[in-house]
Design a protein that fits this description.
- The relative contact order is 0.12.
- By secondary structure, the chain is α/β, with parallel strands linked by helices.
- Helix content is 48%, strand content 16%.
- The radius of gyration is 18 Å and the shape is globular.
């Protein structure tokens, strides 16, 4: 996937006042990269917000629009174009930062669609209470995958009987 992402031009809206109707992707780990790849395929503009300066430098060299900083910081959210974005995708591993970013984004732009990633169900519920529209909970995704795989295994072994 990474090679495909690196070999395609970035999709970022070029407006005098910054991007518009774009997706802000917070975090450029595996989840953020998958989101970016999908948005490229759909020709949807996006901006990456990332803390790791090495990742930022590498992506800038590839022509990706990256803002280095903490997504929970009002100034960073504004630089990423929170006022005109359509979606804020919080694909970061830091649950506390995701909760803070959800609150800050809602304070600036209450109608932004926020999709947050959390590790635990309890934090996912808190993200919803703080204004996230959708939450992806890692422990629930793992549980569903265990169910799917065990169901497949049991179904196969029962057919052999």
């Amino acid at each position: 996937m990474t090679a495909k992402l690196e070999n395609t031009p970035p999709v970022v809206a070029d407006h005098p006042n910054g991007p518009s109707n774009h997706v802000i992707i917070a975090g450029f780990g595996v989840g953020g990269r998958f989101i970016a790849e999908y948005l490229r395929e759909k020709s949807t503009p996006f901006v990456i917000v990332e803390l790791n300066p090495l990742t930022c430098d590498a992506q800038r060299c590839l022509g990706v629009h990256v803002i280095e900083g903490d997504i929970a910081d009002d100034a960073v959210l504004r630089r990423a174009g929170i006022e005109t974005a359509s979606v804020l995708a919080l694909a970061i591993p830091d649950e506390d930062a995701a909760l803070r970013a959800t609150e800050r984004a809602n304070a600036i732009r209450p109608d932004i669609h926020i999709i947050a990633s959390t590790r635990y169900t309890s934090t996912g519920l808190e993200a919803l209470q703080r204004g996230a529209d959708e939450v992806i909970v890692a422990e629930q995704a793992v549980a569903q995958e265990f169910y799917r795989r065990i169901d497949r295994f049991i179904s196969r072994t029962q057919k052999k009987r």
